[in-house]
Amino acid sequence: MLLIAKQDGIAVVTLNRPEAMNALSRELRRALHDGLKAVEADPEVRVIILTGAGDRAFTAGLDLKELGSDPGGMAAANAASADANPVKAIEMCAKPVIGAINGVAITGGFEVALACDILIASERARFADTHARVGILPGWGLSQKLSRLIGIYRAKELSLSGNFLDARTAEAWGLVNRVVPPEELMPAALKLAAEIASVPGDSVNIYKKLIDEGFAMTFGDSLSHETATTKALNAAVTPEAVEARRAQVQARGRTQA
Hints:
This protein is of the alpha/beta class.
């Protein structure tokens, strides 16, 4: 149901219910939480890639078939605990999570995609918010997050119509970082993951936390938060450490020129 493959500081976490479009059953939500906690605690893992099995779906969101036969299903899905809420499980992960969106990301699956730190989409990827069409409201943040990412008018268009958004339009609207042919999706995600993994892990994790915390604040408060957070950390960096890192940055710049 959940596959984890680790190599060279990268963990690839795959939602593995292709026959059900990788729908998020209770069991899969719990497995995703437990899997993320395991790779987060693994000192050898620096970056995580989250994707779906097959080429049809990243994840179709909550398992509607399961919900239709479980009177307590919606209450369980809206629980505040991270083992029930896959968005919270991803957002609480201290390490960077790259979403490799291989197919459709629908409703709760859309919310899971938006919980990732970086999104690379296959040309087959499509996004849809069908909460209103199903007759439920989002409980994992989509109603607030989407408008902040693409603007309130576009967010209302998607959420009130339930229409699909293709990958290229998602890229143009700033919803995904880039779009690649299907066969290039995992190579592109692995390449970026390797580049991030080459940065000292503490720096990456602290920087990710700083960006996320500031994003939830007003601009003025976020600037004050940055100053308060980084003052002591930067003061502890020695000149020798700066010089060593400077040489590494210069060498990398020459190879990327």
